[in-house]
Design goal:
CATH superfamily: NAD(P)-binding Rossmann-like Domain
CATH topology: Rossmann fold
Helix content: 55-70%
Largest sheet: 7 strands, parallel
Strand order of the largest sheet: 3-2-1-4-5-6-7
Structural class: alpha/beta
Shape: globular
Number of domains: 1
Distance between the termini: 62 Å
Bound molecules: NADP nicotinamide-adenine-dinucleotide phosphate
Length: 317
């Protein structure tokens, strides 16, 4: 009887982890870089949050493959600087820059600008990448800031995907839609509750969309990066878990490479060892109920939580 129970547990563990690791190995080592311009017979791509970090690396990679790129990002100095850098780096490519705020609820203003900028071109590669993290307890962050985080990370990707997917379908074009999600979505994340929730939304949305668009030859890819060195951390506040993650971060170019290797090969790309270990331990081995109970017990002992309490108490006095 006992050996039967052992073998049931063995096979459950085996089926949960081994096919996953086989696909991770295939995605990491079995997929050589593809030229996305050739693969999708495309001329234009659009990258949101393309002015810095991962987005800027994606723009560079696509331009190096011969694609022209529309960059949609906040209309600030980062975009101004990136504009002059990228045009110097790739003088024979065409770039269009849409300075816009993707944090609005209905997307009307930025979609007007995006539609105008892309009216005479076919965007066949859409990289939904813009995003940021808001740290602290949900209740202490203003409602407006929480919703701006939500709309940038989630709503903008949904609106853009709906628009460009329909344009590709109308013209019967091949294409690629990518989402930059995060391993933060694998687990409950107190002190950045909204961020992790937006990221798991993207993963579920992308994986569902991928099945709907497969017959139409439009690939969907969602990437879960291991820590990547970018402005993400400087904009995140001083949370100790994030500061530790930054110390072991890789350059943004690894995500651009992952996209070029994995487009059309897998739907979910778990990039790097941190993401893979987190996926196995925190979402395959530990149940969410168990993990949440551990979090509830551990959180009050963390420095970030204690600092938040001090701040909250000072405010209420
Ligand atoms: N870095 C990591 O370790 C990591 C790990 C997992 C997932 N990610 C995800 O990767 C994506 C890219 O982040 P990153 O690491 O490259 O950080 P980043 O360097 O800060 O880049 C974020 C990009 O999004 C733009 N952006 C932010 N808010 C915007 C808004 N309201 N409207 C328009 N554009 C906006 C930024 O413009 P400005 O520069 O002008 O603000 C920038 O171009 C994000 O979705 C992030 O959640 C990052």
């Amino acid at each position: 009887m006992l050996s039967f129970i052992y073998s049931v547990f063995f096979w459950i563990g085996f089926l949960a982890v081994v096919p996953y690791l086989a696909l991770v190995a295939y995605a990491a080592y079995g997929c050589p870089e593809q030229n996305l311009k050739t693969k999708y017979n495309a001329k234009w791509a659009l990258v949101t949050g393309g002015s810095s970090g991962i987005g800027a690396a994606i723009v560079r990679k696509l331009a190096s493959q011969g694609l022209n790129v529309v960059v949609a990002a906040l209309d600030d100095q980062t975009l101004v600087n990136f504009k002059s850098e990228i045009q110097k780096e790739f003088p024979s490519r065409e770039f269009r820059f849409v300075g816009c705020d993707l944090s609005t609820p209905d997307g009307q203003a930025y979609m007007d600008a995006v539609k105008k900028a892309t009216a005479d071109i076919d965007v066949q590669i859409l990289c939904n990448n813009a995003g940021f993290i808001t740290t602290g307890c949900f209740a202490d962050i203003t409602f407006g800031r929480n919703m701006a985080n939500y709309h940038t990370n989630v709503t903008s990707g949904v609106i853009m995907s709906h628009y460009f997917l329909n344009r590709m379908l109308e013209k019967g074009q091949r294409g690629l839609i990518t989402f930059t999600s995060s391993s933060a979505g694998f687990i409950p994340n107190p002190m950045s509750a909204l961020y992790s929730s937006t990221k798991i939304f993207l993963t579920t949305f992308a994986a569902s969309l991928a099945a709907e668009t497969a017959e139409d030859k439009i690939d969907v890819l969602v990437v879960h990066p291991s820590p990547i060195n970018s402005n993400f951390y400087s904009n995140a506040g001083k949370m100790s878990a994030l500061l530790s993650a930054q110390k072991i971060s890789s350059p943004p170019s690894v995500i651009a490479e992952t996209i070029c290797r994995n487009a059309g090969k897998v739907v979910v790309a778990d990039q790097g060892p941190i993401t893979v270990i987190m996926k196995i331990v925190l979402s395959k081995v530990l149940d969410w109920n168990v993990f949440t109970e551990i979090m509830k017990l551990a959180l009050p002992f963390t420095g970030d939580y204690k600092a938040m309490k001090v701040k909250r108490n000072a405010k209420s006095q």
